[in-house]
Design brief:
The complex is a heterodimer of chains A (215) and B (905). With 215 residues, chain A is α+β, with helices and mostly antiparallel strands. Chain A is 22% helix and 23% strand. The two termini of chain A are 27 Å apart. Chain B has 4 domains: 5-50 and 573-699, no CATH class; 71-125 and 138-151 and 465-568, Rossmann fold; 160-440 and 708-746, Dimethylsulfoxide Reductase, domain 2; 758-904, Barwin-like endoglucanases (Beta Barrel). Helices cover 28% and strands 19% of the residues of chain B. In chain B, strand 1 (5-12) and strand 2 (20-27) form a beta hairpin. The model of chain B has no long low-confidence stretch (mean pLDDT 96). Classes of the chains: A alpha+beta (215), B alpha+beta (905). Chains A and B meet through helix 1, strand 2, strand 3, helix 4 and helix 6 of A and strand 3, helix 1, helix 6, helix 7 and helix 27 of B.
Chain lengths: 215, 905
């Protein structure tokens, strides 16, 4: 079996938002819709303060609450763990957006442009009517994974089979791969470090591992 | 569905921390995506990645606010309040206007009645516009004298003092840690993770994850880099010299001498040189060589005598010559003298770490602890082999930020940093503090080749002369760098490394006994917006409005080209062509294991009538009768690489116009020949397909110590005899001409700098102009990767993602300070200096000192589309421009005393 997972090393992340923009490019999301973004968090009181940058997005949970509340069965989970949305089935009710504890889902009802005058050439070229009034979220660039696999490439290793955020990271904070393969880079990263998963107490079994120290 | 999909290799050099290599996806002729150039990971030290700014290039290309046709001004009145009433014109009319003016000026003479070049030019940060202006440098070369001294904000916005002192001490126009090897970085305000580009982010992250690289970030607020550091020390602004001096004290007075790198100090620095009673080196009378005390002979010998064991410390009696300023000499008999190092030890005794903790307003014990850590990490005595050369391994480095290196206190900070590196033998060696770039010395292509031994055993340095016979009494350009700043040297970069704000400041009236500073008859502006990026920006705008003829290569309307007479829309990043050099070592952390060339090419057709910069330059050359000189300049190498060399000749015919493609094809062929030793001569088509071509180089060029060791040259530390002499002479020259307004600056020329009350300079300046008001806070700025080095304030994507980072668009204030002042998160606050005020929403944070406010970036736009609607506060209009706040190198600092009050909830 294959179970895709991601590890993000918080020691490396510099909060540059390169992954945010790379995701916006690759997935042609409209202004303000960031399937991937980096939070800027602060803990402590002056002068004992820590500031941490935390990339967030869909956690591709093993037990995804968004899927359970979906009344139209648009949200599904593949055998490899990727949580998907079928835009043809989605009715845009927003239950999933409310149910997701990670605020990972977005619904846009009107076309938004970078500039007030209307779409730029690139926005016009990439507009997808199917994305209107349906829930959208990070897909882990599933198209790249599938087409890459079809070409014999290895997700997490070969760029053409790897999520755009992982490819773009200038600090090498991201690791992506098959958690069921003990030799995969993500398995080795998880095995060799100390990590947490976000809101693990909710029982969603999220599949982004936040590394914060060595083992 | 997309029928035609291509990936086009490009480079991004929007910031000085580049270039990054990338690919642009083009679907049916429309650029849609940016992605890393994954193949380039084989040569690029940042994994072939590009940073967030590169992802703005697609929007930049299709921004509906772009100017897509040449324009001319129809309103003769200039100023912020006057709509320029630009109207579209043809390229032919635009060329007629510009060339007509150029020909008129050429007929009058290249210099104006005061002696300044009639033409001035300002380009943006760090020379990066050069990587987008095609062959325009060849046009400027063909023209003759051009005044670059107005600058675009450097002096506050660059690492000004570091550039000058760095070049003097270790050919380090820019200074950085040897990040791949170092284990401990002491960073005083260096915002590396925001401004060091991909390579810095990549290397530091690797160090944190895999090598226990520890960085201590010392700064008034918790920056992005502070967030990525092991420790944050919230220092009081402008007390960095005290912090460094306290560490020096610990190393000199609280550790045994043998804990330092004594052999390095004895053999590779000026520490053993003997200093006379007048504060200059004691010299052998016959040769005038500085003397040291040889413990083997128990006698004074010239510094370069063979087989010596120099005394590092001690007091000795000898006969010697002492050379002062302006030829003054003293012949000493039986004079008592001590070594420069002994003087240093005594000088630093007063700067205890306990004193430093108090001055810096940090936790007691911090300076002592960090000094101990620094020394422990230095591994004094360790060595490493670099490609067959055994070098010291000293994995400790110190980096300095802009406000630390600039303005008063910059000299002391740079000196303290460089001295600390010398004390443990960590200057220009693996793991230590390195330079990457040489700009004031020549040749600018090689730090090693720029190293020549001077008469005193240190590196030669092309100081601007201060002796009576050679001092430049009349400035040759408007900022007077060669007259006032000996250290700024006289290279093509010196223009821009002088006190650029003096060119602006004196436009309102020259000080006593100083020539008039005339406006340039024609000012070229490209990729810079001084009306925003300078300081006291309202005054800058008023002064620009008085320039008679401005030619702006323009992307959109902005606050500077608002005052232009002609706007020329050049094809931008993804639309035009240029070959540049990559790799080697240069700027910030760009030291590579390869060197070569990379191409930027039209991924898409230029929008509207935007025209390739090279074609613009060629047409201007043709219409001004400079075509032959212009082509010759290109042949010589003004466009990246000389077109002929050993075994190849791709020179252009000089008597005719060549298209951009023809020119760059020749440059590509010459570059191929150069990088392959003549084995390949592939031209433009090859580079279009492959993007870049490199060859491997040895890391030995990263470490200048090797070259100094080879030539028997010492680092000029700790004693600054040469600076002292030039300072005295400069003072003599100025006083001979009745000039007293530079006297405070002359006080900076000290052989062993004292730590002064640097914050007090700003506090007193504010009090002097307060008129009863109080300005109890410091206002500082910081950078973010989305906007670092500017140029993209009108890009929506950058605005959108930057707001994920706390602090953009507002005024960052300490939580408890805000509570005390009744300010809540999001309240509109006014921040006021004695000069001006600005407004923005309050952003409450714990990661900032209670006495400090912070504004990110520089946003005060009132003309630039999109940016003008951001309504973000900016400190640039609040920072005064004055002689009083200018240091001896001609720099000031991004720092001002302010008040803050709530305007509305």
């Amino acid at each position: 079996m294959t179970r895709w997972a991601m590890a993000i090393d918080l020691r490396a992340c510099v909060g540059c938002q390169t992954c945010t923009t790379a995701c916006r490019h690759t997935n042609a999301t409209p202004p303000g819709v960031q399937w991937r973004k980096v939070l800027d968090l602060e803990q402590g009181e002056f002068p004992d303060v820590k500031r941490t940058f935390v990339p967030v997005g869909c956690m591709h949970c093993a037990d995804p609450p968004c899927m359970h509340v979906c009344p139209s069965t648009a949200t599904k989970q593949r055998a490899d763990g990727i949580v998907t949305i079928d835009y043809d089935l989605c009715i845009g009710c927003g239950y999933c957006a409310v149910a997701c504890p990670y605020q990972a889902r977005h619904i846009v009802h009107e076309r938004e442009f970078a500039y007030a005058d209307g779409p730029t050439k690139s926005e016009e070229a990439r507009f997808d009517e199917k994305r209107m009034s349906v829930a959208t979220k990070c897909t882990w660039c599933v198209d790249r994974i599938d087409s890459g696999l079809a070409k014999g490439l290895k997700p997490g290793v070969d760029p053409d089979a790897t999520p755009a955020c992982v490819n773009s990271c200038i600090a090498n904070a991201y690791t992506f791969g098959d958690l069921d393969d003990p030799q995969s880079n993500v398995s080795q990263k998880v095995r060799g470090t100390t990590w947490f998963r976000m809101h693990e107490e909710l029982g969603t079994d999220p599949h982004i591992f936040y590394v914060w120290d060595e083992k | 569905m997309a029928a035609d999909v291509r990936k086009v290799p490009e480079y991004c050099y929007q910031c000085v921390a580049g270039p990054d290599l990338l690919q642009v996806k083009v679907e049916n002729g429309v650029a849609t995506e940016v992605e890393p150039n994954f193949r380039a990971a084989e040569v690029h030290p940042g994994g072939g990645k590009c940073c967030v700014k590169a992802y703005g290039l697609v929007q930049k290309t299709y921004n509906p606010n772009r100017l897509l046709t040449p324009m001319k001004r129809t309103n003769p009145q200039k100023g912020r309040e006057h709509d320029p009433k630009f109207v579209p014109i043809s390229w032919d009319e635009a060329f007629d206007l510009v060339a007509g003016k150029l020909n008129e000026l050429r007929a009058k003479g290249l210099l104006d009645e005061v002696g300044y070049p009639r033409i001035a030019a300002s380009f943006g940060g760090g020379g990066t516009p050069t990587y987008y202006m095609g062959t325009f440098p060849a046009f400027l070369s063909a023209w003759g004298p051009v005044d670059f001294s107005f600058g675009s904000g450097q002096g506050v916005k660059c690492y000004h003092s570091e550039h000058l002192y760095g070049e003097l001490w270790h050919r380090a126009f820019t200074v950085c840690a040897d990040t791949p090897t170092t284990r401990y970085v002491l960073s005083l305000g260096a915002n590396t993770e925001a401004s060091g580009g991909v390579v810095a982010a990549w290397r530091h992250a690797e160090g944190r994850m895999n090598r226990h690289l520890k960085r201590v970030q010392v700064e008034p607020h918790l920056s992005i880099t502070g967030a990525c550091s092991a420790e944050w020390v919230p220092i009081r602004p402008k007390t960095d010299p005290a912090f460094l001096f306290g560490i020096i004290h610990v190393l000199l007075h609280r550790h045994p001498r043998e804990a330092l790198d004594v052999p390095f100090l004895k053999d590779h620095t000026g520490s053993p040189y003997l200093v006379g009673p007048h504060g200059y080196y004691l010299r052998e009378p016959q040769t005038q060589k500085p003397l040291l005390w040889d413990l083997r002979r128990n006698a004074a010998v010239p510094f370069d005598a063979p087989d010596t064991d120099p005394a590092l410390e001690g007091e000795f009696t000898l006969d010697a010559l002492e050379l002062g300023a302006d030829g003054e000499t003293w012949n000493h008999t039986g004079v008592r003298a001590e070594t420069a190092f002994a003087k240093l030890v005594r000088h630093m005794a007063q700067y205890t770490p306990e004193w430093a903790d108090k001055v810096c307003d940090i936790r007691p014990g911090t300076v002592q602890r960090i000094a101990d850590e620094f020394l422990a990490h230095a591994q004094v005595g360790a060595t490493v082999d670099i490609d067959g050369e055994t070098l010291p391994l000293r994995p400790v480095a110190i980096t300095l930020g802009k406000t630390v290196t600039n303005g008063w206190g910059g000299y002391e900070s740079c000196w303290g940093r460089t001295l600390l590196a010398c004390l443990v033998g960590a200057l220009e060696v693996p793991g230590g503090t390195l330079g990457t770039t040489v700009r004031l010395n020549r040749p600018a292509t090689s730090r090693q080749a720029s190293v020549r031994k001077g008469r005193d055993g240190f590196m030669e340095y092309p100081m601007n002369p201060t002796d009576k016979a050679h001092w430049a009494e009349r400035p040759t350009v408007r900022n007077a760098y060669s007259t006032l700043v000996p250290l700024s040297a006289n290279s093509p970069w010196s223009n821009a490394l002088g006190p650029t704000h003096l060119a602006w400041l004196f436009r309102d009236g020259s000080p006593e006994h100083w020539p008039e500073v005339t406006p340039p008859d024609l000012w070229f502006v490209y990729r810079t917006n001084p009306t925003i990026s300078f300081w006291d920006t309202a005054a800058i705008a008023r002064r620009i409005a008085k320039f008679p003829f401005i030619v702006a290569f323009a992307y959109t309307i902005d606050e500077t080209n608002w005052m232009a007479d002609v706007l020329l829309p050049e094809a931008t990043d993804l639309e035009s062509m240029q070959l540049i050099r990559i790799g080697g070592t240069k700027f910030v952390e760009q030291f590579w294991d390869h060197e070569g060339f990379a191409l930027r090419q039209p991924a898409v057709a230029p929008q509207g009538e935007a025209r390739d910069f090279t074609d613009i330059a060629t047409e201007l050359a043709a219409r001004t009768g400079l075509l032959e000189k212009y082509n010759r300049a290109i042949n010589r190498g003004a466009a990246c690489a000389p077109l002929s060399g050993e075994g190849y000749d791709f020179q252009l015919a000089i008597d005719c116009k060549h298209t951009s493609e023809e020119i760059w094809d020749r440059v590509c062929r010459a570059a191929s020949a150069e990088v392959t030793g003549g084995a390949a001569t592939d031209g433009l088509d090859w580079f279009r397909a492959n993007g870049y071509r490199t060859r491997p180089i040895s890391r030995r060029i990263w470490y200048l110590f090797l070259e100094l060791r080879k030539q028997g040259i010492r680092f000029e530390m700790p004693f600054q005899e040469r600076l002292l002499r030039h300072g005295v002479e400069l003072g003599n020259r100025l006083h001979e001409h009745g000039i007293k307004w530079w006297d405070t600056q002359l006080g900076e020329y000290q052989a062993l700098p004292a730590c002064k009350d640097f914050p007090g300079i700003w506090e007193k300046d504010a009090a002097l102009h307060a008129k009863g008001a109080e300005y109890p806070f410091w206002l500082v700025t910081t950078r973010s990767m989305q906007y670092v080095w500017g140029g993209n304030a009108g890009i929506q994507l950058m605005d959108e993602v930057s707001r994920n980072m706390r602090g953009h668009g507002g005024v960052v204030i300490n939580t408890r300070t805000a509570e005390r002042l009744g300010i809540a998160e999001g309240d509109l606050v006014e921040v006021r200096s004695y000069l001006h005020d600005t407004q923005g929403p309050a952003i409450l944070r714990e990661g900032i000192r209670p006495d400090t406010l912070l504004m990110i970036g520089q946003f005060d736009h009132w003309a630039t589309p999109y940016a003008k609607d951001m309504k973000a506060p900016s400190m640039n209009s609040l920072v005064p421009m004055s002689i009083d706040l200018t240091d001896a190198t001609g720099s000031a600092a991004d720092l001002v005393r302010v008040s803050v009050r709530k305007i509305a909830a």
